[in-house]
Amino acid sequence: xxxxxxxxxxxxxxxxxxxxxxxxxxxxxxxxxxxxxxxxxxxxxxxxxxxxxxxxxxxxxxxxxxxxxxxxxxxxxxxxxxxxxxxxxxxxxxxxxxxxxxxxxxxxxxxxxxxxxxxxxxxxxxxxxxxxxxxxxxxxxxxxxxxxxxxxxxxxxxxxxxxxxxxxxxxxxxxxxxxxxxxxxxxxxxxxxxxxxxxxxxxxxxxxxxxxxxxxxxxxxxxxxxxxxxx
Length: 231
Known about the structure:
Strand order of the largest sheet: 2-1-3-4-5
Order of helices and strands: EHEHEHEHEHEEEEHEHHEE
CATH class of the largest domain: Alpha Beta
Strand content: 15-25%
Mean pLDDT: 87
Radius of gyration: 18 Å
InterPro entries: CheY-like_superfamily (IPR011006), OmpR/PhoB-type_DNA-bd (IPR001867), Sig_transdc_resp-reg_receiver (IPR001789), WalR-like (IPR039420), WH-like_DNA-bd_sf (IPR036388)
Organism: Alicyclobacillus fodiniaquatilis
Largest sheet: 5 strands, parallel
Protein name: Response regulator
Keywords: DNA-binding, Phosphoprotein, Transcription, Transcription regulation, Two-component regulatory system
Shape: elongated
């Protein structure tokens, strides 16, 4: 992550933009602003930001539509800002390709943590042969998982779930995204019960206390987030 990373804030509220500009500049980021979705799309294509903070409630076109159009030609990291009653929009944004979300009202500490994770994620290679995540080590090429130096026996499904979560460490992965990446094109059941069951079994094998997980955290109503020990 570069200290001079460029961040575009797309939000129609002047006070929010000012708050973000001052705070982000204080952390060494270059900040650009857009108050409409259309302007945001134009700026993404022209200034090529390293990350976008996108409000879902914009005056001209919905933030969801902005994200959908941008994802047709760009994989720039996008963190969406949502209101507390926008859970369905939040899930849809993540499924379309948002990297993370922050719920209004939010603390700058939380947003900065999300930004650092998103920027760190794109700076890594997309397919690391070995993932070292604190006491947990995943040898991707050999499909071997070790916890504190000892091999962990996982079912193929448990391994695939862990791989998806670990390679996206720090990011929210929705139930639907997990299902589609692990089970492929099979029919997705909206109750997400298969994902929940296998996550529960996986936690029993890699968490010190499965009832109080520290590695695989639940994002209520949305999905899961993998947090390497020490993050």
